[in-house]
Amino acid sequence: MTAIEERPVRVRRVSLRVTPRALVVGIVLAVVLFVLSAVSMTTGDYPLSVLDVVKTLFGFGDAGTEFIVTTLRLPRLLLAVLVGAALAVSGGVLQSLSANPLGSPDVIGFTEGSATGALLVIVLAHGDSGAVALGALVGGILTALAVGLLAYRRGLQGFRMILVGIGVAAMLTAVNSYLITRASLQDAYAAQAWLVGGLNGRGWDEIWPVAIAVVVLLPLAFGYGRRLALLEMGDDSAKGLGVPVERSRAVLLAVAVTLCAIATAATGPIAFVALAAPQLAKRLARSAKPALVSSALMGALLLVASDLVTRLVFGEEGLPVGIATGAIGGLYLMWLLSNQWRRNRG
Fold first, then answer.
1. Fewest CB within 10 A of the end CB: N or C in the chain?
2. CA 262, CA 141: separation in Å to the nearest integer?
């Protein structure tokens, strides 16, 4: 008999540093999100009680209540949570990598690229909703690759990426406008409805791709949070601390682009969630480091709250939520730019 040599197995441990304030902020955001979700499930043209919703979710509701809960409201709520979280984490990663609060996918052209891909499918191929979603995904990824290649010069500099992205976004906006002018009336209506961005009419088919992306990519982004914080210190400092800079940046960019593209493919362009949520979460946590978990909760909270307000004011199928987030985000962007201007003058 031969002796079998036993070797110790090394287990790599993953540790997360959480400050008490960041933990409290995360808990508060999660509680508020839960409360708003409960209100959203019970509010609408056909009001329900919390007990009715709970009974229906466990299979004890009548046919009418089951249709309202599981077909109309629950998919809408879940999609709002998933898309809000995905956009917020995408924006948080890109803002951190570019070291600029304007480094958001809807500012540097990624969202416009997804819109171009979707419009090409709608106007030229007359595709169904699945083909439109695939076109949006491909368009967003190709736009991100184009921005990265154009901005790359001995490394990917954040300010250069933002300038290139803004230029690419402007060109794609012109392309999108041209495509709509060349479309038939029916295709132009469908294209404009998609470009507004919203949760109306979305169901379980739109949820599953976003859910898979969130389950797979959000933990990856959270796991790279420490590297992301070190990358903010500069490439030389990060390399000195043992961070594989280029590989880490490539992984984080791929995560951010994929989250943004899949979220946009599901709902259309939802403006300013990716821009505002990471900054609001960071200010609440009073953290100099990226607050990706809080950003995800804040993004979900913003989108659920915006959708709830539009439903209360304009009805179940009234104002698309993309219009509401665009109006609120425009005010936030004005405040952000004026605040940056005052800081630079000071």
1. N
2. 10
What is the sign, positive or negative, of the torsion defined by CA atoms of 256, 258, 259, 261? positive
Residue among 229, 184, 165, 180 nearest 18 (CA)? 229
- Residue carrying the six token digits 């990519």: 217
- Mean pLDDT for the stretch of residues 126-130: 77
Q: What is the pLDDT of residue 317?
A: 67
| CA–CA gap between residue 126 and residue 230 (Å, rounded) | 46
Please report, for residues 107, 159, 207, 333, the alpha-carbon distance to residue 329 in angstroms, rounded to integers and kept in the order given: 12, 22, 24, 6
- At residue 345, does pLDDT exceed 70? no
Contact predicate 179/257, CB 8 Å: no
Asked if residue 123 lies in contact with residue 137, where contact means CB atoms within 8 angstroms, the answer is no
Distance CA 195, CA 177 (A): 11
Q: Which residue has the tokens 């480094």?
A: 103
Give this prediction's pTM: 0.87
The predicted model gives 183-204 an average pLDDT of 82
pLDDT of residue 1: 42
CB 121 within 8 A of CB 291: no
